[in-house]
Amino acid sequence: MPLNADIFTEIINLAQISEATDPRDKVYGILALLPDAIRKNIQPHYADSYTAFDAYTEFSRACILGFRALTLCAHGEINMEPPRLKDSSLPARLLISPV
């Protein structure tokens, strides 16, 4: 069964508002809620050289492949700068919706 756009948006919102000591877990924590078409393209990595930016990029790529569409739309700002540059007062939101 295809993933409903509203449900997918709620899953993404859940990841955005959740707290994680490792920002990569915002992606990895929702994997079980995603369809196989997306989940099969994401492999959790916790090596120091694999950054949150890498995890978010892999997630975006998996969504494009899984939905077979380029319907990625940034809403607000995605903060993936190194921690020393990150301004936590800025909202970080990413909306990815299936067609």
The tally of structural domains comes to: 1
Instruction: Give the overall shape, derived from the CA principal axes.
Output: globular
Mean pLDDT: 75
| Fraction in helix | 25-40%
Instruction: Characterize the main sheet.
Output: 2 strands, antiparallel
The Rg value, from CA coordinates, equals 13 Å
Beta-sheet strand percentage?
5-15%
The oligomeric status of these chains comes to: single chain
Number of strands: 2
Compressed to H and E, one letter per element, the order equals: HHHHEE
The spatial strand order of the largest sheet comes to: 1-2
**Low-confidence segments:** 73-87
The helix/strand class is mainly alpha
Question: How many angstroms does the end-to-end distance come to?
Answer: 14 Å
Number of helices: 4
Structure characterization notes:
It is built from four helices and two strands; from the N terminus they run ααααββ. It has one domain (5-96). Helices cover 37% and strands 6% of the residues. The chain starts with a helix and ends with a strand. It has helices at 5-17, 25-28, 36-39, 52-67; strands at 72-74, 94-96. It has a two-stranded antiparallel ribbon with strand order 1-2. It is mainly alpha-helical.
